[in-house]
């Protein structure tokens, strides 16, 4: 049955902050080391130690913001260990992630250099769990103070004359768990205290982000908003899409059964409920929506690839992940009045990555391709699109078969993105377009799809899943008819 949508391009519904397409890179497994940092002496082509291929790939998706150094790692990271001559830097144990030696070769200077190469904003997460107020305060001074001061002088000694522009700063990570196992009342007080010393020097204006709730811990949001709202610019939220159970078996990234496809879609769609419910609490204390909801960890989390270090969280990435990414973006667009930034976990070689590397080889995941296709929505105006989707049925349960979103850029081009999450059936969508005259000539499209639920790219076959031109649409009297194959993500451009 044909599903109906009404697109009204004259009805603008807020701006889609490009930071919704943000990223996260932690000192975890092979994300920073190998995935990004290979060192200046590496045979892998690099610029000052940073992989050229990865930088180029991330620039191609217009990466807007990058969160670092964690995650759980952030609350045991002592930034002073990661500056100064590399050979003299302290070696520590990364107790959270695999118990491996962390040589601190990638520190503040290297991260800021990476952001400069990527032309993206840095988002640094400070240590509340095991660090002091002084340590956090001095880090900000080190990075952003221009004049004469102990930390600014030290930065200059270490080769960076000018202060960096630091845009986003997180005061701790998951402080209800790996960041200190705190109660919200206690963390809220600590947040107020630590953030006091995250100072704005020399015109640098830091957007302060408080550590937010885990999934549906609404009490955490309530307490943080009630006690500390006036001290924050953003409040975070973490939610991962896990088909199984965290501790007993999350499910495999490839070779999974049909029911795991369905439940993955269902759990991805749960993000909408979480945003609504946390958002309602935020609205109570911040009806003007001054405070951004910052979903700084999201994405799929499966069992690690067989034979890999369980602490490295390395997983393959399939067309299923691409659909999960698409659904999330549609939900984030729907809530673009509150959701100001999100950071998928994680950029390279960890969880739902954009990029996988093996030595000098690099491949793009299906998720990467969705980020690339959707960059047309960055900073665009969300426009009204009402969808009446038919049911995607499985084992007595139903989900909406399609999900749509639309935006209009500065040139007036309208982009409509559509996901067909059904693993078996085509979807036909009729879009009644108001406020824009269309013909077959001014509509173009691209599609990402596959004929197997776990289709993915490998180091041997890096182009199994990649976007191609899409033209299964026609302009009819009743609007634009689009026919999507199962398991597909389509982006249409109209002008
Ligand atoms: O992204 C992996 C981990 O997931 C992060 O370190 C932590 O914040 C979360 O639990």
UniProtKB/TrEMBL annotation:
Which Pfam families does the entry link to? Alpha-L-AF_C (PF06964), ASD1_dom (PF22848)
Q: In which pathway does it act?
A: Glycan metabolism
Q: Which residues form the Alpha-L-arabinofuranosidase C-terminal domain?
A: 296-488
Substrates-to-products reaction catalysed: Hydrolysis of terminal non-reducing alpha-L-arabinofuranoside residues in alpha-L-arabinosides
Family matches, as InterPro entries: Alpha-L-AF_C, ASD1_cat, GH, Glyco_hydro_b
Q: Which UniProt keywords apply?
A: Carbohydrate metabolism, Glycosidase, Hydrolase
EC top class, as a word: hydrolase
Entry EC number(s): 3.2.1.55
Which SUPFAM superfamilies does the record match to this protein?
Answer: (Trans)glycosidases, Glycosyl hydrolase domain
Oligomer and partners: Homohexamer; trimer of dimers.
- Family membership noted in the UniProt record: Belongs to the glycosyl hydrolase 51 family.
Designated name of the protein: non-reducing end alpha-L-arabinofuranosidase
